[in-house]
Structure formats: structure tokens, C-alpha cells
């Protein structure tokens, strides 16, 4: 189980890094800041690297949800702390948002995080309900079969 968790974490982290790089490049292209690459290639590399690391940390941290001995609250709180801290650190090091905008961004971050968590929770709750219903149906069909024998 431990090797499987480590493998999943590495794969998720690498996917997160790729997504981070793609988002960083897309923002660069959309914002028109790609023209600055010629004058400031180090800044571009720093932004892409920071985005890759942010994606790597956040997607890699998703693996804590696979630790079955931890409850949902514990995993959610730990994942949120990792995600939020890495975001604040990246923002501080790379200067993504000014202080007056940062409060709005933090509110948006927390809101989006909660919304994604809520959607996932409701999806899994429905899935569990469906699995339980399927299990009940299987049991009642087995009991019915036993009665006819």
C-alpha cells in the first residue's frame, strides 16, 4: 500500500507540475507579457518554475486523501493548509498579487476550495448511497434465491 501511495503521489505531482507550467504559459500568452521574456528571461523562468512547483505540491498533496486511517476532516484541513501555504509562499516569492488585491484573491481561493470540496463530497456521498443500494439489492436477491431452494 505504501509503495502504491508513493507512486500515486509522484504521478499526481508530475501532472500538477505540467498543469502549473501550462497555466503559467497560457497566462503569459493571454496577458501579452510574453514580450517581456526577451528582456527578462529569468523572470519568466521564475514564474514558470513557481507555477510548476505550486502545481506539484498541490496535486501531490491530494494523495493524503488516500490515507484511509485519516478522517475526511483531517485530510481536508491538512490539504487546505498545504495548498494555502504554498499559494501564499509562491505569491510572496513571485509577487503575483499586490497586498490590496491579495485579500480578494484569498477570499476567492478559500471559496473555490470550499466549492470544489463540497461538490466532491456530494458526488462521493451519492456514490456511496448508490453502492449501498446495490449491495442491499444483491443481498435481497441472494436471500430470495436461498428461499426458493
Tell me what the structure shows.
With 149 residues, the chain is an all-alpha fold. The protein has a domain at 2-96. The protein is 86% helix and 0% strand. The protein is built from five helices and no strands. It has helices spanning 2-31, 36-39, 41-61, 72-94, 99-148. The model has no long low-confidence stretch (mean pLDDT 87).
Give a quick summary of the entry.
With 149 residues, the chain is mainly α. The chain has helices spanning 2-31, 36-39, 41-61, 72-94, 99-148.
Q: What attributes does this structure have?
A:
149 residues, mainly alpha, 0% strand
- What's the total count of β strands? 0
Fraction of residues in β-strands: under 5%
The level of helicity is over 70%
Tell me which oligomeric state these chains represent: single chain
Instruction: Please work out how many helical segments DSSP would assign.
Output: 5
Question: Element order, helices and strands?
Answer: HHHHH
Structural class label? mainly alpha
The first-to-last residue Cα distance is 42 Å
Describe the main β-sheet briefly. Answer: none
Gyration radius, rounded? 22 Å
Average pLDDT rating: 87
Q: List low-pLDDT spans.
A: none
